[in-house]
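agent: user wants the full assembly modeled, not chains individually. Plan: 1) parse entity lines 2) check alphabet per entity 3) run joint structure prediction 4) return tokens. Steps 1-2 passed, two entities, 744 residues total. Proceeding.
--- entities ---
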Amino acid sequence: MSVKNSTLPERGKAGGKANNLLHRFSYNQKLAPYVFITPFLITFLVFFLYPIFSTVVMSFQNILPNQVQFIGLQNYRNLNDPIFFKAISLNLRYTLVTLLVLIPLPMLLAVLLDSKLMRARNFYRSTLFIPALTSVVVAGTIFRLIFGEMPGSLVNQLVGLFGVKPVKWLKLADTSFAALITLATWRWMGVNLLYFLAGLQNIPAELYESAEIDGANAWHRLRSIIIPMLKPVTVYVITISIYGGMAMFTESFMMFSGNRSPNNIGLTIVGYLYRKAFEENNMGYGSAIGLVLLVIVMVVNVIQLHINGTLRKEKRK
Amino acid sequence: MKKLVSIFLALTMLLTMAVGITSASAAEVTTFDFWTFNELHVEFYLVMAEMWNEANPDRPIAINPTSLAYDDMHNKLLIALQSGEGAPDIVDIEIGKYANFLMGETQLVPLNRVVEPELDNIVKSRVDIYAKDGNYYGICFHVGASVTYYNKDILEAAGVDPASIVTWDDYAAAGRKVLETVGVPMCTVESNDPWSFWQMLTEQGSDLLTPDGLPNVNTPEMAKGLQFYQDMIAEGTAIVAPGGGHHAEEYYGYMNAGGAASITMPFWYMGRFTDYMPDLAGKILVMPNPVFEVGNPRSVGLGGTGTSVTTQCENQELAVDFLGYAKLSEEGNLKIWEIMGFDPIRKALWGHEELKNPNKFIDYFANFPFDALIEVQDEIPAIVVSENLPKTMTAIRSTIMYRAFETMEDIPTMLAEEQDILEKTPN
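--- prediction returned ---
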């Protein structure tokens, strides 16, 4: 924001000193920006910075009512825990697969829905977005019933058409993972689609026109115009998807109707944090898990942004 | 219209004045904030507060109830007690979470003053589970005595007399007969909860924890119990409950349609029968559990909710007195049965004729449910509760039962692995 010295409007001499002060304050251009960001700053300090700081401190403590004590690195040493590794592995696989599904597919759909040849575009746009507006609680419950183990459940009826016997979908590692991915795809497709659609509208029409003059076909346009021009959007979607994937909790919680899944096949990092901190009252260990999650997400994202060149570009500016 | 309004206003004024006069003449009302995760508990405490006020006009109380979701309530309470601010005066804490609230410097008020005089009249194990260092911090709603529910029609069709089933061997033999003649399994077993299994441990004198409170899943008693059910599953006389447990939607539908001949569950499961399995009305018998050896205790108190007073309560003495009245008195225990259908902890009450007054439970079951309780009243040991229970329960619910009954793994190997993991994971 540029700060220029402008002449303040003259005030009547009758105005008292207090009035004058208030006046100077409200027209002070140096102060104004700070006043405007104060609400955000306060929220940030109280609800983000303080909790982060407090979590770091807590991760070195054993916390019980009136018996808080520092225990050094014990909580971090305890992280060498097979169940924690199982949770990390689920989140990593989940993130990877959701990235593989939820980047190309919505991008392709966005291109189709952006095309003028497509019929009933608005109908598809809204129907694809509706899942994002549905509460995960409702969706999770419905999906749990869809993937039920009885012969009457929807998916079992479908596979039954091909002569497959009823499967206990949510009790086996692979099938329950597939169910989670299905839920994620159904839920996030519309959101990512919206991002890509917005990105597509920002591509100037001249690019397509000149490409056409040069004799580019649809494939060339997609490869040489659309994908490169969508890069900023793609990078953004990848970044939030990595975070979303690593911090996934509600979907699993709802799918397995609680924070416990058979043989921990649906246990996520946040689920484990929740289990340890709240279900088993070990806040210190929970804090350590939370910080490890933060570190993992940061590292993965920094690597990803580095590879994409996003960080370098920022520097050049 | 105007007239009506003015009459209404005048009446309101008169009423307000009347209320003002009565409350001015009576003693000051103490209001207690009460948190629970079960709407029915609210109803119970409101009724009890009314009864208390009638009996103690000089010490009137009011209950200000807040009903929250199960996890939500326990999490909020944990934080409120940890931070020393914002906790209610009286609170319901579920047994699976209770150990969390006994850790560190306990932020609950000892109830010994009201509990100790009643110890002979109640099932003592139902206050022992909320005790630490000789102090009782909570009083349970119910015994949660484990019993076996038999489907009379299926057993009749198979020619099995449920009264003749005394040992688990009898039970397995009856199961083979039921499978042969009727074609349904004898029972369903949970793979995500311990309720249909726990009594097998306690009848052999063992438990999920050692008497010192350490995880104790790799024991011969545990292996024997799991092996028994696993063998039944292998021969088809038992199946894993559809949906994994006895609280799944799939399960209710399956059982309601006559899916299995029996299940072993605590007494509080009666409410699930009446609410979710209406077609079984008049067919279900409530009987004592079979045992491995005659003479073993045939039941155990499972599940439960302890009501406690927090140290943040300003009038602790009155709160403790009220809690004692609500949870330990004969009137209170009768209401627990009438409103919630639980087996009240005051065992002296079980033979009372008043319990036979028709209600939805008496109407539903084929026999008088308390007959089974009276039979086993001296065979209800306490389970061991310690800060290791939450994590051990998690292992039971997510891995041990699943590996024993779903993937049918070799039990001794599996138990050794699970014990090892339990010892390695921090609390």
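agent: reporting back. The beta strands of chain A are 61-62, 69-70. Residues 174 and 265 of chain A are 9 Å apart (CA to CA).
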